[in-house]
Each structure stands twice: as C-alpha cells, then as structure tokens.
Amino acid sequence: MDMHKIHQARILVQRLERLSADSVWAHRASGLRAGLDKSLAKVEAGEASAYKDLLVLIQAGFDILEKAAQEIPASEDR
C-alpha cells in the first residue's frame, strides 16, 4: 500500500469539494469524491484489489480538476 497515493487521494477529495457549484464539473466531482471515499476505505481496510481502483479514480480526479481550472478566466479577463 502506497501511503503517498492515499495521502494524494485525500487531498484530491478536498480539492474536488472546493469546485464552484456553477461549474459543470462540480456534479461529476461529487460522484468521483464518493468513489474516492469508498475506495480509500477499502484500501485502508486491506482490500488489495481496491488499490487499482483508487489509482484510476485519482487520475480521473486530476482530469476533472484540470478541466475545471480551464474554465477559470485569466486574471486579465476579470
């Protein structure tokens, strides 16, 4: 079990929670957060097969954060 990935998943959950409700990505992030929480619980309970799922969810979370960030207007556009 890679403690770095577990820590990364926890931080990712926190970041996904902070997406603006106005963002089209916020709804998707909500479901992903639930999946990350469930997968984290399984990994921490020792389910080895859940670790692979956690890695996939972490990547999906970063993809959502990246796409949500692209919606943020540049400072000169404000």
In short:
This protein is mainly alpha-helical and 78 residues long. It has helices spanning 3-17, 24-44, 49-70. It has a domain at 1-7 and 25-71.
Helix coverage percent: over 70%
Q: What Rg do the Cα atoms give?
A: 14 Å
Number of strands: 0
Structural class determined from secondary elements: mainly alpha
Number of helical regions: 3
Poorly predicted regions are none
Tell me the series of helices and strands, N- to C-terminal: HHH
Beta-strand residue percentage: under 5%
Alpha-carbon distance between the two ends:
44 Å
Mean pLDDT: 90
Q: Judging from the principal axes of the Cα atoms, what is the shape?
A: elongated
Q: Biggest sheet: strands, sense, closure?
A: none
List keywords for this structure.
single chain, 78 residues, mainly alpha, 74% helix, elongated
Write the layout of secondary structure elements.
Blueprint: H1 3-17, H2 24-44, H3 49-70
Helix pairs in contact: 1-2, 1-3, 2-3
Fold and architecture overview:
The protein has a domain at 1-7 and 25-71. It is 74% helix and 0% strand. The protein is mainly alpha-helical. It has three helices and no strands. The longest helix is centred in the C-terminal third of the chain and has 22 residues, at 49-70. It has helices at residues 3-17, 24-44, 49-70. Helix 1 (3-17) runs antiparallel to helix 2, helix 1 runs parallel beside helix 3 (49-70) and helix 2 (24-44) runs antiparallel to helix 3.
